[in-house]
Amino acid sequence: MEHKTFLPWIRGIVFPLVCRLCGCMMMRAGRACPLCSDCEKELPEVGDCRCRICGRSLISEDETCMICRKRASLFNMEQNRSVFEYRDQAKELIHQYKFSQARGLYVYFAERLTLEYNSFFPGLVAVPVPTSRKSLRTRGWDHMGIIADMMHSAGKVPVEKFLEHHGRHAQKELDYEGRLTNIKGSIGLKAASCRLPEDALLLDDVFTTGATVSECAAVLKSAGVKRVYSLTLAID
């Protein structure tokens, strides 16, 4: 048997991966990201019965949730779809990815978003929501940008980084009204952007109030895009 057959197994012992949720040791050859299969099964996914606008789980057969009945007129996008509910293990995993240097999780997140993309938005140009300047300075990297890059390279998803973030403040600490005010005018179209598609798909981490994706959608539509959808890792 050739020596290279053993190389992945040897690397897995010398440089093992540790699951970010339970701490168990994993063979590098058996998992491309720091998340074990047992913990992956515990991630709270959004159910099949969803709001037709924001994508939240519904407990009734109504097509629209109570939140969107009040705010739908403020949205500039057609529909959001999320993979997980932003709670429990999913919330912890996303928080570790963004704030605890668990950068290797981008592989798993890209895989999950690509599955949703292929099932519900095939062919649409994916546009990652840009990170604020403050977040870039603090984190040191564009967390949605590298997920989009992986979706493009591994999943053949067409990706265009049309947007840029001019604002100084992140959205996560603000309430609904504060988010609307903070994000207004903070998103712009890159000067080199041209030949925009008729339909576009925004990529973001967490859908909370919809203020960010709505502002991004407004910028794209003002430049000629007709319909804008959003695909997010989780919904709060």
Report on the structure:
The chain is an alpha/beta fold. The protein folds into 2 domains: 1-40, no CATH class; 43-235, 3-Layer(aba) Sandwich (Rossmann fold). The protein is 36% helix and 17% strand. It has 9 helices and 8 strands. It has helices at residues 7-14, 37-41, 66-71, 88-99, 106-120, 133-139, 143-155, 176-183, 211-222; strands at 17-18, 25-26, 79-85, 125-128, 163-165, 187-189, 199-207, 227-235. Strands 3-8-7-4 form a 4-stranded parallel β-sheet. A hairpin with a 6-residue loop joins strand 1 (17-18) and strand 2 (25-26). It is globular. The N and C termini lie far apart (51 Å). Residues 1-15 have low confidence and may be disordered.
What number is the mean pLDDT?
85
Q: N-to-C terminal Cα separation, in Å? A: 51 Å
CATH class of the largest domain equals Alpha Beta
What sequence of helices (H) and strands (E) makes up the elements? HEEHHEHHEHHEHEEHE
Highlighted features:
236 residues, alpha/beta, Rossmann fold, 4-stranded parallel sheet, two-stranded antiparallel ribbon, 17% strand
Question: Care to give the gist of this entry?
Answer:
With 236 residues, the protein is of the alpha/beta class. It has helices spanning 7-14, 37-41, 66-71, 88-99, 106-120, 133-139, 143-155, 176-183, 211-222; strands spanning 17-18, 25-26, 79-85, 125-128, 163-165, 187-189, 199-207, 227-235. 36% of the residues lie in helices and 17% in strands.
What is the secondary structure topology, with strand pairs?
Blueprint (H helix, E strand, L loop, with lengths): L6 H8 L2 E2 L6 E2 L10 H5 L24 H6 L7 E7 L2 H12 L6 H15 L4 E4 L4 H7 L3 H13 L7 E3 L10 H8 L3 E3 L9 E9 L3 H12 L4 E9 L1
Parallel strand pairs: 3-8, 4-7, 7-8
Antiparallel strand pairs: 1-2, 5-6
